[in-house]
Design a protein that fits this description.
The structure holds 2 protein chains of 2 kinds. By secondary structure, chain A is mainly alpha-helical. Chain A folds into 3 domains: 120 residues, no CATH class; 304 residues, no CATH class; 100 residues, no CATH class. Chain A has 21 helices and 5 strands. The longest helix of chain A is centred in the N-terminal third of the chain and has 23 residues. The N terminus of chain A is likely disordered. Chain B is mostly helical. In chain B, strands 1-3-2 form a 3-stranded antiparallel sheet. In chain B, helix 2 runs antiparallel to helix 3, helix 4 packs parallel to helix 10 and helix 7 runs antiparallel to helix 8. In chain B, strand 2 and strand 3 form a beta hairpin. The radius of gyration of chain B is 22 Å and the shape is flat. The chains are: A mainly alpha, B mainly alpha. Chains A and B meet through helix 8, helix 11, helix 17, helix 20 and strand 4 of A and helix 3, helix 5, helix 10, strand 1 and helix 13 of B. Chain B: One of its GO terms (molecular function) is ribosome binding.
Chain lengths: 531, 228
C-alpha cells in the first residue's frame, strides 16, 4: 500500500499545494538563478514562503500538508531553482522559522540530501552531514521532538543515512585519487561515518522507540501501530516510533552491505514480511526490505524464500508502476525492479520452481532473461557473474585503511569477495541441472545408465546425486531440514527411483483469476450506459 | 536431522549470548568472544551468533584480528554442516586472509564436503591433522553429516560406499553398523554387504507428493463475493 495522499491525516486543505496563491502555477514562472550565482547566500521569496509554510505545518502537525510540501514542492523548487546548485544555507532561512533548532536540523538534512543527489559532496560536506545526523538523532532519541512527520520523510532519513554511510565507505576506499589535504583530514576523522556509530544509532532508535515491544504487544491487540500506519492520532508524535521501525529495515540493509546475511535476516525478524506492515506504506521501504531479504536468502541458498518474495514485490510493482511515475524515486524503483528480475532469474536457474512465479511476472522475466536463464541452466558461469554483478548490493569495506601503507583503491574488494564466494557456490552445483533434466524423463534409471548418459563415471554420479540432495535441502532457523527440490528421487542400491514429478497442472488459480476477470467485465458492462 | 552441536547449553553460554544480544556492535566484548571460542572448542558447544559477532568486530577493526581464533571458528562451522555456517563465516573474512594456506585448505575441505566427495575430504583432512585435531569432536561431527546426506539419498547402499563416507573400516566399521542396527533402525543385507537405512521423508519422496495441488482457502475466498 503506497502512501495515499487522500487519506485523512487531519489536513484541512483539499487543493493541491501548487494551486494556492503563494505558489500559483506550480513555480512555472520561476526563472532559474543565473549560473555561477551563489545560491547559498540568497533566499528567494518563494523559498522563504516554502520554509515559513513548512515550519507552520510542522508545528500544527498537519501531516497531509507536510507531505505535500516535502514530496511535491521541495522537488519542484529543487528542479526549477537549484538544479545544479545548493539550497540557501540554514543560517539564511533560520530567521524565518524563529531559529527553531529542530526545524533547522531537518532543513539541513534535506539540504545535504539535495547536495548528494545533484552535486558531488565534498569531504567537508560529508563530515557536516554526519554531524547533522548525529545532532538530529540525539534530539529525537532524547525525546525532545514532538512532531508528526510523514512516513515517507522518516523512511528517507534512514535510507539516506545509510546511503551516505555507504557512499563515504566507497569514497574513502578510493585512496589513489585523494589529495594530501584530504588524506590528512581522513586520518583525523575516525568517528565520522564510523560503522559502529552507524549501527549504534540504528540500534538506539530501535531500543529507545520500544518498537519491538510495540510490535509484540500489537499481536495481542493492546496497542495499535500498523493499523494507523504508525501515526499517532492522540496528540503524540510518530517520529521516534517510526524511525525505530524503519531502523529495523536499516539494520537488514547495513548487515547485507557487510556480507552478514544471517545477522541481517535476524535483525528483520520482528517484521513479518508476509503480513501488511508499516514497511509497505512507503514504496521505497517496501522495495528495500524485499530486495535485501531476497538477496540474503539467495546467499543462504534459501532460493524458494527469495523466489516467493521477489515474485510478490515484482507483481506489486508491475501493477502499480503507473502510480509512482511522478514520484522522485521513480528511477530508483525502476532500477531495483530490474535488479530483482535479475536476482529472480538467478534463483530460478539454481532452483527451478516456475510455478511459484505469477503469470505477469513470468512474462516479464521471460522477456528480459529467457536466453540468459537458459545459459545459466547450462552452468555458464559468466552469465551468473554478469547478473550477480549487475544486481548485487553495493558492498562495503567498513574499516578505515592503514594510511601508512601504499595507497591503493580497495573499493571493489568487498564486492569481489562476495562474487567469488557466490560463484564457487554455483560451481558446486554445476552438475545438478543436467541431473535434473535427465531425472525428469524417467521413473527409474540405473546408476550405470545415467552415468553413461551424462558422460561421467559411476562414482562421480553417486557423488553428484548426494550433492543434489544436500543442495536442495534447506536448514530452517529452528534446525529442521526441508527439501526445495522440484524433482526428487531416492537411490535403492544401484537404482534411482524418481518421484512422480508430473504434478497435474494447477487449473484452480487459472479459473479463479478468470472468474474474477469475468466478474469485472460484467460489472463494467452493467455500468456502461448505452446510447 | 544433521548434528547440531551446541544444543546443550551450560549457564555461562547464556550470559555470553546475552552480552552479544545487548552489545552486538560493541568492540569491548571482543576479548570475551575470543575466549568464548576457546570455550566452545573445549566444551564441544557451539554458537553461530557469537562467532559471527566476533567476525563482525574483526571486520570493523582488522588490526585486532586473531587468525588462530578465526581458524577455530571455521572448523567449528564445518562441523555444523549441513547448515550453511561455513559460507556465512567466509562472507565476513577478508579475501587476502582467505588466500593464506590454512584458509585455502579449509576452503578445500568445505568444498569437498559441500559436494559430498567424502573420500577426497578424508584424505585432505588426514594431511591437515594439525589444524583439525585441536577441535575435539571434529571427526564425529563430519561423520554425522555424511550419514545425514546418505540417509536423505539412499534406501540401501553398498557397505563400501558407507565405509568410504565415514572413513571407517574393518572391525570399527562393524561396530558402527552394529550400533546403528541396534539403536537407529538400520539393517544389513546380503551378508552385511548392503546397508539398509531407515525410511524417511527424503529417501522415499512419494510420501510428500501432491500436497501442492490443493487451493488455499484465501484464494477461494477471493471469488466468494462473485459466487453469492
Amino acid at each position: 500500500m503506497a502512501y495515499d495522499g487522500n487519506r485523512d491525516f487531519g489536513g484541512g486543505y483539499d487543493d493541491s499545494y501548487d494551486d494556492r496563491p503563494e505558489f500559483r502555477d506550480g513555480f512555472r514562472d520561476l526563472q532559474p538563478l543565473e549560473p555561477g550565482f551563489d545560491t547559498t547566500n540568497y533566499v528567494p521569496d518563494v523559498v522563504r514562503t516554502f520554509v515559513v509554510y513548512l515550519y507552520r505545518h510542522i508545528r500544527e502537525k498537519n501531516v497531509y500538508e507536510i507531505h505535500q510540501m516535502y514530496e511535491g514542492s521541495f522537488q519542484k523548487l529543487s528542479d526549477r531553482l537549484f538544479k545544479q546548485s545548493k539550497w540557501p544555507a540554514v543560517e539564511m532561512i533560520a530567521p524565518y522559522v524563529e531559529n527553531d533548532h529542530v526545524f533547522c536540523l531537518l532543513y539541513k538534512e534535506m539540504w545535504f540530501r539535495h547536495v548528494y543527489a545533484r552535486l558531488q559532496p565534498t569531504l567537508e560536506q560529508r563530515c557536516d552531514s554526519w554531524d547533522n545526523y548525529c545532532n538530529l538523532f540525539q534530539v529525537i532519541l532524547h525525546g525532545n521532538v514532538n512532531m508528526q512527520l510523514p512516513n515517507q520523510w522518516l523512511w528517507d532519513m534512514v535510507d539516506e543515512f545509510i546511503y551516505q554511510f555507504q557512499s563515504f565507505c566507497q569514497y574513502r576506499a578510493k585512496l589513489k585519487q585523494k589529495t594530501d589535504q584530504e588524506l590528512a583530514v581522513l586520518r583525523e576523522i575516525d568517528e565520522v561515518w564510523n560503522v559502529v556509530g552507524v549501527l549504534n544509532y540504528l540500534q538506539a532508535l530501535i531500543e529507545k522507540s520500544m518498537i519491538l515491544q510495540i510490535l509484540e504487544e500489537e499481536k495481542d491487540g493492546n496497542v495499535t501501530f500498523t493499523a494507523t500506519d504508525g501515526y499517532d492520532y492522540h496528540g503524540g508524535t510518530n517520529v521516534l516510533k517510526v524511525l525505530g521501525y524503519f531502523s529495523i529495515v536499516g539494520l537488514l540493509r547495513v548487515h547485507c552491505l557487510l556480507g552478514d546475511y544471517h545477522s541481517g535476516l535476524r535483525a528483520l525478524s520482528p517484521i513479518d514480511i508476509n503480513q501488511p506492515g508499516v514497511f509497505n506504506t512507503v514504496i521505497g521501504c517496501q522495495i528495500t526490505t524485499i530486495y535485501y531479504y531476497g538477496f540474503a536468502n539467495l546467499m543462504l541458498r534459501r532460493y524458494v524464500d527469495s523466489i516467493k518474495s521477489f515474485n510478490q514485490i515484482l507483481l506489486y510493482i508491475f501493477k502499480t508502476k503507473q502510480y509512482h511515475q511522478r514520484s522522485s524515486q521513480y528511477d530508483q524503483i525502476l532500477k531495483k525492479n530490474e535488479q530483482m528480475y535479475a536476482l529472480l532469474a538467478i534463483c530460478l536457474s539454481l532452483c527451478p520452481h516456475p510455478k511459484l512465479v505469477e503469470e505477469n511476472v513470468n512474462n516479464q522475466l521471460r522477456e528480459k532473461y529467457a536466453e540468459k536463464m537458459l545459459r545459466m541452466q547450462r552452468s555458464d558461469e559468466a552469465m551468473f557473474d554478469e547478473l550477480f554483478s549487475y544486481a548485487c548490493p553495493k558492498f562495503i569495506t567498513p574499516s578505515p585503511p592503514n594510511y601508512d601503507e601504499p595507497l591503493i583503491n580497495f573499493n571493489q574488494d568487498a564486492y569481489r569477495l562476495q562474487l567469488k564466494l557466490f560463484l564457487s557456490e554455483v560451481r558446486q552445483q554445476q552438475l545438478l541441472s543436467s541431473i535434473r533434466s535427465f531425472l525428469k524423463l524417467y521413473t527409474t534409471i540405473s546408476i550405470a545408465k545415467l552415468a553413461s548418459f551424462m558422460d561421467v563415471d559411476e562414482p562421480t554420479l553417486r557423488v553428484a546425486l548426494l550433492t543434489y540432495k544436500h543442495k536442495t535441502h534447506v536448514i530452517n532457523y529452528d534446525g529442521t531440514v526441508l527439501s526445495n527440490a522440484d524433482v526428487d528421487f531416492y537411490v535403492d542400491d544401484d537404482m534411482i527411483h524418481i518421484a512422480d514429478t508430473k504434478v497435474t497442472k494447477r487449473f484452480g488459480d487459472y479459473f479463479i483469476r478468470h472468474i474474477q476477470k469475468f466478474d469485472e467485465i460484467v460489472n463494467e458492462l452493467d455500468r456502461t450506459q448505452l446510447e | 536431522m544433521g548434528p547440531m552441536p551446541g544444543a546443550q547449553a551450560p549457564q555461562q553460554i547464556f550470559t555470553i549470548e546475552q552480552l552479544v544480544a545487548l552489545n552486538p556492535y560493541n568492540p569491548d566484548i571482543l576479548p570475551d568472544l575470543e575466549s568464548y571460542v576457546e570455550e566452545q572448542v573445549a566444551t564441544q558447544t557451539y554458537s553461530l551468533d557469537c562467532n559471527l559477532c566476533l567476525l563482525r568486530l574483526y571486520q570493523f577493526q582488522p588490526a585486532r584480528m586473531n587468525v588462530h581464533i578465526i581458524i577455530k571458528i571455521l572448523v567449528k562451522a564445518l562441523m555444523a554442516l549441513p547448515a550453511t555456517d561455513f559460507s556465512l563465516c567466509m562472507f565476513l573474512i577478508p579475501e587476502r586472509l582467505q588466500m593464506e594456506e590454512t584458509f585455502l585448505t579449509l576452503a578445500t575441505l568445505a568444498h569437498f564436503l559441500e559436494t559430498s566427495r567424502f573420500r577426497e575430504f578424508w584424505d585432505e583432512a588426514n594431511r591437515n591433522r594439525d589444524i583439525l585435531e585441536v577441535v575435539p569432536g571434529f571427526e564425529q561431527a563430519i561423520q554425522g553429516y555424511a550419514i545425514h546426506v546418505l540417509s536423505i539419498t539412499y534406501q540401501r547402499l553398498p557397505r563400501t560406499l558407507f565405509a568410504e563416507a565415514i572413513n571407517v573400516e574393518g572391525l570399527s566399521l562393524d561396530k558402527v553398523l552394529e550400533h546403528q542396527v541396534n539403536n537407529n533402525g538400520w539393517a544389513l543385507e546380503k551378508g552385511g554387504k548392503v546397508v539398509v537405512l531407515p525410511l524417511n521423508e527424503d529417501n522415499q519422496p512419494v510420501l510428500r507428493r501432491n500436497t501442492a495441488d490443493s487451493i488455499p482457502l484465501e484464494h477461494v475466498a477471493k471469488i466468494l463475493p462473485v459466487l453469492v
